[in-house]
Specification:
Elements: H1 2-13, H2 17-24, H3 28-35, H4 43-53, E1 69-75, H5 81-104, H6 127-139, H7 150-156, E2 160-164, E3 172-179, E4 182-188, H8 193-209, H9 219-231, H10 234-241, H11 250-260, H12 264-273, H13 279-291, H14 310-320, H15 326-333, H16 337-344
Helix pairs in contact: 1-5, 2-3, 6-9, 8-9, 11-12, 12-13, 14-15, 15-16
Length: 355
């Protein structure tokens, strides 16, 4: 068990065997022996390994092992395999802590995910997806208003959302998998909120639409359409912009972004998809976006990021109900016990925003 966890933690830090060996004061061959289970590190070496890999010593002995199934990355061509390995190691660590917490509860207070709508016939066109997005909103009691906290909605309905801080250059576009039959969506903490929200809604689209698309209908395009329609319903968009326009003001798109958490470019796509503007107008406006540099960076401050507090909340709830003690709570949160004491007494109020 120690060998596998050592290998994963090393991948998460992006260290070669040689680099880790130099930090710990052993040979690269010894690191290899540890990872293959040929040798076991003694306590002094284990402490140095923990420090070098930024994990608690308990990490190496964690009893819960999870497997990510059905892993599907949405990544850019420039995303290196090294970064993807680090992200996957980070996700496995977070998922294991989730599973260990769940196993401690007699009755874990999170409902399992079930499809919010029942689709009885193949989806024939992208236009049909707008209505399906409305059905999901209705099933979840969201109405047609902006969704202020998309992560909270997904977690409430049994989707595990993990935020990785590994993607420091924001080159990773999302990951979907499952752990113990629970769907998992991973987004980056380096992204602005509108990109996080679109990815979350896109991955929800896969959960809703997969297996229901007519032959020839591209699933990625379908999920993009679902994401934009889910975040900004057609009927709402028409109330905001009118049913038919010859052009749009950039400020209108900017205000829609502020209200609905969907990028200006995505709002422009929605306007054409809804028939409010023509495809020609959309292309002309995209050329204007390119000329102003808005395709890479839209004007104004980035939309606020999504965060998740559910794991923290459940750890503290389990502590309050006597399901676990302080040491286990600190271990699950991945922090020293003294730091946990500070957080528990509200002497450290802004810690663990992405735990």
């Amino acid at each position: 068990m120690i060998g596998e966890r050592l290998k994963r933690a090393r991948a998460a830090m992006g260290l070669s065997m040689q680099a880790l060996a130099e930090q710990v004061g052993v040979s690269a061959n010894m690191i290899k022996k540890y990872e293959h289970g040929i040798s076991m590190p003694g306590s002094p070496v284990l402490i140095r390994l923990s420090k070098a890999l930024d994990v608690r010593a308990e990490y190496f002995f964690r009893p819960v092992k999870v497997e990510l199934k059905g892993v599907e990355y949405r990544k850019r061509s420039t995303t290196s395999q090294g970064v993807l390995k680090r992200i996957e190691a980070d996700v496995l660590d977070q998922a294991e802590r989730w599973q260990e917490l769940a196993n401690l509860w007699p009755d874990f207070p999170i409902q399992p995910f079930s499809p919010p709508v029942t689709l009885t016939k193949p989806i024939a066109s992208l236009d049909d997806i707008d209505g399906i997005a409305d059905q999901v909103r209705s099933a979840w009691g969201l109405g047609l208003n902006p969704i202020p906290d998309l992560i909270d909605e997904l977690e409430t309905h049994g989707v595990l959302v993990l935020i990785t801080e590994v993607d420091v250059q924001a080159k990773f576009d999302g990951l979907q998998a499952s752990v113990a039959n629970t769907p998992v969506i991973v987004v980056s903490g380096a992204w602005p909120g509108d990109r996080q929200r679109f990815t979350l809604a896109h991955e929800l689209g896969h959960l809703v639409l997969s297996g229901h698309l007519a032959p020839g209908l591209d699933e990625e395009k379908a999920c993009n359409r679902f994401a934009s329609a889910f975040l900004l319903p057609t009927s709402t968009l028409r109330k905001q912009l009118g049913s038919q326009r010859h052009t749009l003001e950039a400020r209108e798109l900017y205000l829609l972004k502020l209200e609905y958490g969907l990028s200006m470019q995505a709002c422009l796509y929605r306007a054409a998809d809804a028939g409010i503007i023509s495809q020609g107008v959309r292309e002309r406006m995209f050329m204007q976006f390119s000329g102003r540099g808005w395709r890479k960076k839209e004007p104004g401050e980035p939309y606020r990021q999504e965060v998740t507090f559910l794991f923290q909340q459940l750890v503290y709830r389990a502590l309050g109900e006597g399901i676990l003690g302080e040491s286990k709570a600190a271990e699950l949160l991945g922090i020293p016990v003294f730091q946990f004491h500070q957080a528990r007494k509200l002497e450290l109020t802004d810690a663990f925003a992405h735990q």
